[in-house]
Design goal:
It is built from ten helices and 22 strands. With 407 residues, the protein is of the alpha/beta class. It folds into two domains: 241 residues, Alpha-Beta Barrel (TIM Barrel), CATH 3.20.20; 81 residues, Beta Barrel (Elongation Factor Tu (Ef-tu), domain 3). An eight-stranded parallel barrel has the order 1-2-3-4-5-6-7-11, surrounded by five helices. The protein has a six-stranded antiparallel sheet with strand order 17-16-22-13-14-21, with no helix packed on it.
């Protein structure tokens, strides 16, 4: 089977997470400025930070896509020209928009800028895809509610110059492609403006109007109900089918996730894509060490979303919590003279078994035989936040390799 190599597109909520995405194999990153983005919680990037981020990414052959995918109100429109001027000055590769008005303004203020239409646009058919292409879009980010067959038909009935991007990993919203009013209604935080409080993850009970001190569970278990709580999406076992359907960019959700999450998941999909290109006809032999990586980050139970038709198993009723089986305990700064020099992230001690994750290769294992602090003293544990340590080791790992331990 002849296939086109897809792009691995990773999230970047701040400079640390951006660096993680680049180090661990992203072909492109998507990030937000201080306005017009769908993630208000991450730090995001000032104009100066964005310029530095783009410079760093471009020096390593990585593209940068800037999100302006909120649905702006009237009073925000006058500020969009300055936003686009800064995007041009920073030399971003594309902007991601959901609003047709912003699409027109991008063409007006930055006629040479590549435009990607966000999943918030709700693109579910080839007519819409073609019309957006005719309006100037270079890429469409498909609604998450499409099957592989529907994606293949969109691909077959759209120009080959139109890129097709789809989410393949990360948190899913119970509402249609993220269009939700629940958060705004309950706590006045507008999900369509990047402020979602995720009330779909809450446990719910019923209350009778005149009995305000009595709460009646909507039974799923004794802890409550999580009828709106979606599982996480994971398509690492099926990338061959996704690419065969015509998806040209594989998007990882998670601008609000940790740098460890970005490192591990980006690395897993990077290795999976490389394996797919080397073994296009037998991707089902994808090694376990690659597939298992997605279980070594904080995650909800996984499912395959709508890719194989209307899902029957994408809601998780037990609780709204995460599965956390591994902790990152340190990040490697350098290796020299028979030592690992690292910065502590969580407590670890002599005698414990650790895994070391470096980009593009299977993880390594080691037993911590000694920990030496900044004063040259041998200590039993690395127990102070961000403390610098030396660990004897006869192997060399690249900077930003991750040391983790199973709980």
């Amino acid at each position: 089977m002849s296939i086109i190599k897809p792009e691995v597109l990773a999230p970047a909520g701040d400079l640390e997470r951006l660096t993680a995405a680049v180090d661990y194999g992203a072909d492109a990153v998507y990030l937000g400025g201080k306005s017009f983005g769908m993630r208000a919680a991450p730090q995001n990037f000032t104009c100066e930070q964005l310029a530095e981020a783009v410079k760093m990414c471009h020096s390593r052959g990585v593209k940068v896509y800037l999100t302006c995918n909120t649905l702006p109100r009237n009073d925000e429109i006058p500020y969009f020209e300055q936003f686009m001027e800064e995007a041009k000055q920073c030399n971003v590769d594309a902007v991601i928009v959901a609003d047709l008005g912003l699409l027109s303004l991008v063409k007006k203020y930055a006629p040479d800028m590549e435009i990607h239409m966000s999943t918030q646009t709700g693109i579910v058919n080839y007519v819409t895809a073609n019309e957006l292409y005719n309006m100037g879009a270079k890429r469409i980010v498909l609604a998450r509610e499409l099957s592989l067959e529907e994606i293949a038909e969109i691909r077959a009935k759209t120009p080959k110059e139109l890129d097709i991007e789809a989410f393949v990993h990360g948190a899913m919203c119970v509402s249609f492609s993220g269009r939700c009013l629940l958060s705004q209604y309950l706590v006045n935080r507008d999900a369509n403006r990047g402020q979602c409080a995720q009330p779909c993850r809450w446990g719910y009970h019923l209350m009778e109007e005149k009995r305000t001190d009595q709460f009646f569970p909507v039974f799923e278990d004794e802890k409550g109900t999580y009828i709106l709580n979606a599982k996480d999406l994971c398509m690492i076992d099926h990338l061959d089918k996704v690419v065969k359907a015509g998806v040209t960019s594989l998007k990882i959700e998670g601008r609000a996730k940790s740098s460890y999450y970005v490192s591990v998941v980006t690395n897993a999909y990077r290795m999976a894509v490389d394996y797919l290109m080397a073994h296009p006809d037998n991707y089902d032999t994808l090694p376990d060490y690659i597939k298992d990586e997605v279980f070594k980050v904080s995650h909800r139970k996984y499912c395959t979303g709508f890719f194989f038709g209307h899902p029957n198993d994408c809601q998780y009723y037990e609780n709204s919590g995460y599965i956390r089986e591994y902790d990152v305990v340190a990040v490697i700064d350098k290796c020299e003279d028979g030592f690992i020099y690292a910065s502590q992230r969580n407590k670890f001690s002599v005698g414990e078994k650790a895994e070391i994750l470096s980009p593009g290769i299977p993880f390594d294992t080691m037993v911590i035989k000694e920990i030496i602090n900044e004063n040259g003293e041998s200590v039993e544990s690395a127990c102070h936040a961000t403390m610098k340590v030396k660990i004897p080791c006869d192997k060399v790992y690249p900077p930003n390799s991750v040391i983790r331990m199973k709980k």
